[in-house]
Protein backbone atom coordinates (compact mmCIF):
# COMPACT_ATOMS: atom_id res chain seq x y z
CA UNK A 1 0.00 0.00 0.00
CA UNK A 2 1.36 3.42 -0.93
CA UNK A 3 1.74 6.41 1.37
CA UNK A 4 -1.19 8.16 -0.31
CA UNK A 5 -3.52 5.20 0.36
CA UNK A 6 -2.49 4.98 4.01
CA UNK A 7 -3.11 8.67 4.45
CA UNK A 8 -6.42 8.54 2.59
CA UNK A 9 -7.77 5.64 4.68
CA UNK A 10 -6.66 7.25 7.91
CA UNK A 11 -8.26 10.57 7.03
CA UNK A 12 -11.47 8.72 6.17
CA UNK A 13 -11.50 7.18 9.65
CA UNK A 14 -11.03 10.65 11.17
CA UNK A 15 -13.92 12.14 9.24
CA UNK A 16 -16.48 11.75 12.07
CA UNK A 17 -14.05 12.09 14.99
CA UNK A 18 -14.36 15.91 15.43
CA UNK A 19 -18.17 15.67 15.54
CA UNK A 20 -18.09 12.87 18.12
CA UNK A 21 -15.56 14.73 20.27
CA UNK A 22 -17.61 17.93 20.11
CA UNK A 23 -20.77 16.07 21.12
CA UNK A 24 -19.04 14.36 24.08
CA UNK A 25 -17.48 17.60 25.31
CA UNK A 26 -20.86 19.34 25.06
CA UNK A 27 -22.52 16.58 27.10
CA UNK A 28 -19.76 16.73 29.71
CA UNK A 29 -20.18 20.51 30.06
CA UNK A 30 -23.95 20.03 30.42
CA UNK A 31 -23.52 17.32 33.07
CA UNK A 32 -21.01 19.47 34.91
CA UNK A 33 -23.39 22.45 34.83
CA UNK A 34 -26.24 20.31 36.21
CA UNK A 35 -24.03 18.92 38.95
CA UNK A 36 -22.85 22.41 39.90
CA UNK A 37 -26.48 23.63 40.02
CA UNK A 38 -27.47 20.79 42.32
CA UNK A 39 -24.51 21.49 44.59
CA UNK A 40 -25.65 25.11 44.94
CA UNK A 41 -29.18 23.95 45.80
CA UNK A 42 -27.77 21.50 48.33
CA UNK A 43 -25.66 24.23 49.94
CA UNK A 44 -28.72 26.48 50.25
CA UNK A 45 -30.91 23.70 51.67
CA UNK A 46 -28.19 22.73 54.11
CA UNK A 47 -27.93 26.32 55.36
CA UNK A 48 -31.72 26.55 55.81
CA UNK A 49 -31.77 23.20 57.60
CA UNK A 50 -29.08 24.30 60.04
CA UNK A 51 -30.76 27.64 60.69
CA UNK A 52 -34.15 26.10 61.45
CA UNK A 53 -32.81 22.99 63.15
CA UNK A 54 -34.37 23.84 66.53
CA UNK A 55 -37.62 25.17 65.15
CA UNK A 56 -38.59 22.37 62.76
CA UNK A 57 -40.35 19.24 63.84
CA UNK A 58 -38.61 15.86 63.52
CA UNK A 59 -40.80 14.91 60.54
CA UNK A 60 -39.90 18.15 58.77
CA UNK A 61 -36.23 17.64 59.52
CA UNK A 62 -36.33 14.11 58.17
CA UNK A 63 -38.08 15.29 55.04
CA UNK A 64 -35.44 18.01 54.44
CA UNK A 65 -32.58 15.56 54.99
CA UNK A 66 -34.13 13.08 52.56
CA UNK A 67 -34.48 15.82 49.95
CA UNK A 68 -30.86 16.87 50.41
CA UNK A 69 -29.75 13.24 50.16
CA UNK A 70 -31.69 12.79 46.90
CA UNK A 71 -30.05 15.88 45.46
CA UNK A 72 -26.64 14.48 46.43
CA UNK A 73 -27.48 11.20 44.73
CA UNK A 74 -28.57 13.04 41.58
CA UNK A 75 -25.38 15.12 41.54
CA UNK A 76 -23.37 11.90 41.95
CA UNK A 77 -25.18 10.40 38.95
CA UNK A 78 -24.28 13.44 36.87
CA UNK A 79 -20.64 13.10 38.01
CA UNK A 80 -20.59 9.37 37.18
CA UNK A 81 -22.07 10.05 33.72
CA UNK A 82 -19.48 12.74 33.15
CA UNK A 83 -16.62 10.39 34.13
CA UNK A 84 -18.01 7.61 31.91
CA UNK A 85 -18.33 10.00 29.00
CA UNK A 86 -14.73 11.17 29.54
CA UNK A 87 -13.55 7.52 29.48
CA UNK A 88 -15.44 6.90 26.22
CA UNK A 89 -13.87 10.02 24.70
CA UNK A 90 -10.40 8.88 25.76
CA UNK A 91 -10.95 5.40 24.31
CA UNK A 92 -12.25 6.93 21.07
CA UNK A 93 -9.09 9.01 20.64
CA UNK A 94 -6.87 6.13 21.78
CA UNK A 95 -8.42 3.85 19.14
CA UNK A 96 -7.36 6.23 16.38
CA UNK A 97 -3.89 6.58 17.91
CA UNK A 98 -3.47 2.78 17.98
CA UNK A 99 -4.61 2.57 14.37
CA UNK A 100 -2.11 5.27 13.41
CA UNK A 101 0.71 3.38 15.17
CA UNK A 102 -0.34 0.17 13.40
CA UNK A 103 -0.44 1.84 9.99
CA UNK A 104 2.96 3.45 10.60
CA UNK A 105 4.47 0.08 11.59
CA UNK A 106 3.03 -1.60 8.46
CA UNK A 107 4.19 1.28 6.28
CA UNK A 108 7.73 1.12 7.69
CA UNK A 109 7.79 -2.67 7.18
CA UNK A 110 6.72 -2.23 3.55
CA UNK A 111 9.42 0.41 3.01
CA UNK A 112 12.05 -1.93 4.48
CA UNK A 113 10.83 -4.80 2.27
CA UNK A 114 10.98 -2.57 -0.82
CA UNK A 115 14.46 -1.37 0.11
CA UNK A 116 15.60 -4.97 0.68
CA UNK A 117 14.09 -6.13 -2.63
CA UNK A 118 15.66 -3.17 -4.42
CA UNK A 119 19.05 -3.99 -2.86
CA UNK A 120 18.75 -7.63 -3.89
CA UNK A 121 17.73 -6.64 -7.42
CA UNK A 122 20.71 -4.27 -7.60
CA UNK A 123 23.07 -6.99 -6.38
CA UNK A 124 21.66 -9.46 -8.92
CA UNK A 125 22.01 -6.86 -11.67
CA UNK A 126 25.62 -6.14 -10.67
CA UNK A 127 26.37 -9.86 -10.54
CA UNK A 128 24.82 -10.32 -13.98
CA UNK A 129 26.85 -7.40 -15.37
CA UNK A 130 30.04 -8.83 -13.85
CA UNK A 131 29.22 -12.22 -15.35
CA UNK A 132 28.66 -10.72 -18.79
CA UNK A 133 31.86 -8.67 -18.44
CA UNK A 134 33.89 -11.76 -17.50
CA UNK A 135 32.35 -13.65 -20.42
CA UNK A 136 33.27 -10.83 -22.82
CA UNK A 137 36.80 -10.70 -21.43
CA UNK A 138 37.08 -14.47 -21.83
CA UNK A 139 35.87 -14.22 -25.41
CA UNK A 140 38.35 -11.39 -26.08
CA UNK A 141 41.18 -13.49 -24.64
CA UNK A 142 40.15 -16.41 -26.84
CA UNK A 143 40.01 -14.15 -29.89
CA UNK A 144 43.38 -12.62 -28.96
CA UNK A 145 44.93 -16.06 -28.53
CA UNK A 146 43.47 -17.19 -31.84
CA UNK A 147 44.74 -14.02 -33.53
CA UNK A 148 48.22 -14.52 -32.03
CA UNK A 149 48.27 -18.13 -33.18
CA UNK A 150 47.13 -17.08 -36.63
CA UNK A 151 49.77 -14.35 -36.73
CA UNK A 152 52.48 -16.80 -35.65
CA UNK A 153 51.33 -19.26 -38.29
CA UNK A 154 51.36 -16.46 -40.86
CA UNK A 155 54.91 -15.47 -39.88
CA UNK A 156 56.04 -19.10 -40.11
CA UNK A 157 54.43 -19.42 -43.53
CA UNK A 158 56.11 -16.22 -44.72
CA UNK A 159 59.47 -17.43 -43.43
CA UNK A 160 59.07 -20.71 -45.26
CA UNK A 161 58.06 -18.81 -48.37
CA UNK A 162 61.18 -16.65 -48.02
CA UNK A 163 63.39 -19.70 -47.71
CA UNK A 164 61.73 -21.29 -50.71
CA UNK A 165 62.18 -18.07 -52.68
CA UNK A 166 65.79 -17.87 -51.58
CA UNK A 167 66.47 -21.45 -52.65
CA UNK A 168 64.81 -20.86 -56.00
CA UNK A 169 66.75 -17.66 -56.52
CA UNK A 170 69.95 -19.44 -55.54
CA UNK A 171 69.38 -22.09 -58.17
CA UNK A 172 68.91 -19.39 -60.75
CA UNK A 173 72.13 -17.62 -59.71
CA UNK A 174 74.14 -20.84 -59.94
CA UNK A 175 73.06 -21.28 -63.57
CA UNK A 176 73.55 -17.62 -64.57
CA UNK A 177 76.33 -16.54 -62.19
CA UNK A 178 75.36 -13.55 -59.95
CA UNK A 179 72.86 -11.93 -62.30
CA UNK A 180 72.52 -8.18 -62.61
CA UNK A 181 71.35 -6.70 -59.24
CA UNK A 182 71.67 -3.22 -60.66
CA UNK A 183 69.03 -4.09 -63.23
CA UNK A 184 66.78 -5.41 -60.48
CA UNK A 185 67.21 -2.28 -58.37
CA UNK A 186 66.11 -0.17 -61.32
CA UNK A 187 62.86 -2.10 -61.62
CA UNK A 188 59.74 -0.61 -59.99
CA UNK A 189 58.89 -2.22 -56.59
CA UNK A 190 55.44 -3.70 -56.05
CA UNK A 191 54.05 -2.09 -52.82
CA UNK A 192 52.48 -5.43 -51.87
CA UNK A 193 55.79 -7.31 -52.25
CA UNK A 194 57.82 -7.69 -49.01
CA UNK A 195 61.30 -6.14 -48.95
CA UNK A 196 64.50 -7.50 -47.37
CA UNK A 197 68.19 -6.87 -46.95
CA UNK A 198 70.08 -3.67 -46.19
CA UNK A 199 68.94 -2.27 -49.52
CA UNK A 200 65.26 -2.65 -48.63
CA UNK A 201 64.48 -4.30 -51.97
CA UNK A 202 62.44 -7.33 -52.97
CA UNK A 203 63.82 -10.85 -53.08
CA UNK A 204 66.07 -11.60 -56.08
CA UNK A 205 69.10 -13.68 -56.82
CA UNK A 206 70.66 -15.82 -54.11
CA UNK A 207 69.91 -14.80 -50.53
CA UNK A 208 71.16 -15.85 -47.11
CA UNK A 209 69.34 -15.81 -43.79
CA UNK A 210 70.83 -14.41 -40.57
CA UNK A 211 71.12 -17.04 -37.82
CA UNK A 212 70.09 -14.53 -35.15
CA UNK A 213 66.39 -15.37 -34.43
CA UNK A 214 65.81 -11.74 -33.37
CA UNK A 215 67.31 -10.21 -36.50
CA UNK A 216 64.92 -7.46 -37.72
CA UNK A 217 65.78 -8.04 -41.40
CA UNK A 218 66.38 -11.83 -41.55
CA UNK A 219 67.26 -12.19 -45.25
CA UNK A 220 70.07 -10.56 -47.29
CA UNK A 221 71.25 -10.54 -50.89
CA UNK A 222 74.64 -12.14 -51.37
CA UNK A 223 75.96 -9.10 -53.23
CA UNK A 224 74.77 -6.67 -50.52
CA UNK A 225 76.74 -8.48 -47.77
CA UNK A 226 79.80 -9.29 -49.91
CA UNK A 227 79.17 -13.02 -50.40
CA UNK A 228 79.62 -15.11 -53.52
CA UNK A 229 79.01 -18.52 -51.92
CA UNK A 230 77.18 -19.73 -48.88
CA UNK A 231 79.53 -19.79 -45.86
CA UNK A 232 79.91 -22.85 -43.66
CA UNK A 233 78.40 -22.85 -40.19
CA UNK A 234 76.33 -20.04 -38.76
CA UNK A 235 76.27 -16.68 -40.45
CA UNK A 236 75.28 -13.33 -38.93
CA UNK A 237 74.49 -10.14 -40.79
CA UNK A 238 76.71 -7.07 -40.29
CA UNK A 239 74.30 -5.44 -37.84
CA UNK A 240 73.91 -8.56 -35.67
CA UNK A 241 77.68 -9.18 -35.83
CA UNK A 242 78.32 -5.66 -34.53
CA UNK A 243 75.72 -6.12 -31.76
CA UNK A 244 77.32 -9.43 -30.69
CA UNK A 245 80.74 -7.78 -30.48
CA UNK A 246 79.33 -5.04 -28.22
CA UNK A 247 78.00 -7.68 -25.83
UniProtKB/TrEMBL annotation:
Superkingdom classification of source: Eukaryota
Domain remark in the UniProt entry: The PHD-type zinc finger mediates the binding to H3K4me3.
Biased composition (Basic residues): 129-144
Name of the featured protein: Inhibitor of growth protein
Record GO biological process: chromatin organization; regulation of DNA-templated transcription
Pfam families cross-referenced by the UniProt entry: ING
Family: Belongs to the ING family.
Binding, Zn(2+) 1: 197, 199, 221, 224
Domain annotation PHD-type: ranges: 194-243
InterPro entries (alphabetical): ING_fam, ING_N_histone-binding, Zinc_finger_PHD-type_CS, Znf_FYVE_PHD, Znf_PHD, Znf_PHD-finger, Znf_RING/FYVE/PHD
SMART domains: ING, PHD
Amino acid sequence: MTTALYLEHYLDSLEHLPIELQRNFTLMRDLDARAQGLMKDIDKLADDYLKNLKKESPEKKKEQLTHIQNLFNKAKEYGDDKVQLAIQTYELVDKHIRRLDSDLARFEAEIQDKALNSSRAQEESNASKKGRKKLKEKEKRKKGAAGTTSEDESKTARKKQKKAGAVGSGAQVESTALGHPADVLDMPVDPNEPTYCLCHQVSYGEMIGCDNPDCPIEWFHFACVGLTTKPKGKWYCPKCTQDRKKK
